[in-house]
Design a protein that fits this description.
seven-stranded mixed sheet; alpha+beta; about 400 residues; 11 helices; eight-stranded mixed sheet; homodimer
């Protein structure tokens, strides 16, 4: 693997491309991406829970049910959501154009969109984008593809990881986009993972779901769950390694690598959150169950008042306690303990003995951890969140116009 | 009733006062308020659902269980929340000082606090505030009291209404504060309602709960449910009118007046929301049940992306559809219709035929209605919300420091 084979093209047998097709007429950035496997691959996907789904989500869910895919085409600039029958026809026509170019089956081509909702795809430019990508596919094309899927992201997000198996080695690569409409279940974003591991679609889905639950479903920028959230994983089996069978150490090792890769990407999504100036880890322990701990962590991670306090360098643990209190999880207020990094600010439900300047110094950092203990139970959870800044408002008040 | 007997002092037999006690040492505004009934009154209360409750909420809940109160003391500048045993003792000592001054029972004195969480009450100044209020009680004191309970509010909020009964007439007066930490169940705020009607505590609670559900539980500024939310109603029976008995037309008329008064105040809380520049009504119809409709209305009312779009004059109905889709309520995306005032922007799940400038013109107004129809069902709901602006961030990033 050379240094230039990054992201989705890091594993054996994947090519990719990015192309500028002016999906938004005023934009000259790359806005179409294509990822292609040399051979048909096992595919699994995790999708938005929103009842209003992009046409592309419906299309990809069908492909994941079948279990085989060979390519993923992505456009930014238009979400192809709330576009009715036309949206479904457009997704199909896009897949067909990709399939023709590759000599593959239309039913093995995933199609993803991200951008403004409610505007039909500009199909002439989309098809031009398909052709442009097909013409520039390359084993070094991962970086271009990662740029092409960006919307309000400020940096492209690529990752790869190698996993030593008992015999042989496999590589997992990925790219991700998303910095607004980020909320748990699923965080709003597109994530594409490729691997040269050999694994059946069912087991691949189990590992992907587990990884998403421990990464993309534990982050929060705003609280809006989009119409287009998608995590897709293609496994083409082209590495020289034995197939991954559930219940084996290799399978577990691959699963852990997938979690690690997804957590890395999820944290980078938060760091690049719209207007974010802080990266804050919310760690909850002592709850009765992990689910209770997650409710508390999520409430704090989503609280506008906590997030504006983080932005304002304000060690306002009262807002943290308040959010924990309305999370819906069982809670004894008199057992609440809160730390900002190493500084205990709340003890047994009231102010701990600390110096305000010490606490302020902690929240002034670009990264810090809010640790919350709610009792003696075994339940714990971690969430990653950003602060809420002026720039979030600027970006989202001006985004569409 | 003269023009100067406003708000909580509008009904017969109530006096009030506001006093500047420097609860926040740097502030010279009135920050203590006292409302007193000439005679012990029936009392009912609706309180925060937060598991982390102010000591004052626990104190008032106990008084409401007993059903009789004669006075309400309120301080702004400090929430007396997360203050442990000390907080309870301070609430009790405050009530005691009021009771001594009035020659009343300590157990008939409600105590409310609003402001920063986690700091013990400055009891010397609180008791000084009690004395100052006692010395200036007046039948014209409603306006001063309404100013004294403000925190980040920019205008005091008073209201009164007269209700003609079959024999006689009663008056209901009120004051409210709250512009941040506003979320349904219960919106974060303090509301004090007085009336000279004669009504038992049980029926009074039923009517108050109904009014709160149709007003304060249908508003949203941010999504944080505070530790101190309180709606208290005192009915002293001093009007020359017969007692209100459940099941009678008079009881119903009084209940409707209470709803109307609470809706008026709730809408004014939203209009004065932190940083709010828009007042937006979210009206949902066609759901299977009222509860489903409420879930959808709440999701749209709370959505940061919808609220920033409102702020940005962006007729971004895609974000509205998106929020409806993740609300958790059953929803057929193809049945979604959305109007901005009179302009239909979404029809059968996709863009309706409208001119963008017409839709933009509607959301550019300081007040407009988002009407959402999700099907043919009987369920409907209305929510009132604000936009999310730069000033919200400024206020909340800087509030405590």
């Amino acid at each position: 693997m050379t240094a230039s084979r990054t992201g989705v093209t890091a594993p054996t047998g994947f090519r990719a491309a990015g192309f500028a097709a002016a999906i938004k007429p005023t934009s000259s950035k790359k806005d179409c991406a294509l990822v292609v496997s040399e051979a048909p691959a096992s595919v699994a996907g995790v999708f938005t829970q929103n009842k209003v789904k992009s046409a592309t989500v419906l299309w990809n869910q069908e492909i994941c049910r079948q279990g085989t895919a060979q390519a993923v085409f992505v456009n930014s600039g238009n979400a192809n959501a709330c576009t009715g029958e036309q949206g479904l026809r457009d997704a199909e026509a896009t897949a067909e154009r990709v399939a023709e170019g590759l000599g593959a089956s239309r039913d093995n081509v995933c199609v993803c969109s991200t951008g403004v909702i409610g505007v039909p795809l500009p199909m002439d430019r989309i098809l031009n984008g398909v052709d442009g990508c097909l013409a520039s596919l390359s084993p070094e094309g991962g970086a271009d593809a990662a740029v092409a899927i960006m919307t309000t992201d400020t940096v492209p997000k690529e990752a790869s990881i190698e996993v030593e198996l008992s015999r042989g080695r496999v590589t997992v690569g990925a790219m991700a986009k998303g910095s607004g409409m980020i909320a748990p279940n699923t965080a709003t974003m597109l994530v594409f993972i490729t691997t040269d591991a050999s694994i059946e679609p069912g087991p691949l889905y189990s590992l992907l779901k587990q990884a998403a639950d421990r990464s993309f479903n534990c982050i929060c920028i705003d609280n809006d769950c989009s119409t287009n959230d998608t995590v897709l994983c293609l496994a083409n089996g082209l590495a020289e390694a034995q197939p991954l069978m559930p219940g084996t150490p290799d399978y577990a090792a691959f699963g852990e690598a997938l979690v690690s890769l997804c957590q890395d990407l999820a944290q980078r999504l938060v760091r690049d959150g719209e207007g974010a100036t802080k990266f804050v880890t919310i760690s909850v322990s002592g709850a009765d169950t992990d689910e209770d701990a997650k409710m508390i962590a999520r409430a704090v991670a989503q609280s506008q008042l906590c997030k504006t306090a983080f932005y304002g360098n304000d060690a306002n643990w009262g807002r943290i306690a308040c959010a924990a209190g309305y999370s819906g999880a069982p809670l004894n207020p008199d057992s609440l303990q809160v730390w900002l990094n190493d500084i205990k600010v709340m003890e047994d439900g009231r102010r701990a003995d600390y110096r305000e300047e010490d606490a302020s110094e902690r929240v002034r950092q670009p990264e810090f951890t809010v640790r919350i203990s709610v009792g003696e139970g075994p339940g714990q959870a971690v969430f990653w969140t950003s602060d809420l800044s002026f720039d979030y408002i600027r970006i989202n008040a001006e985004y569409r116009s």
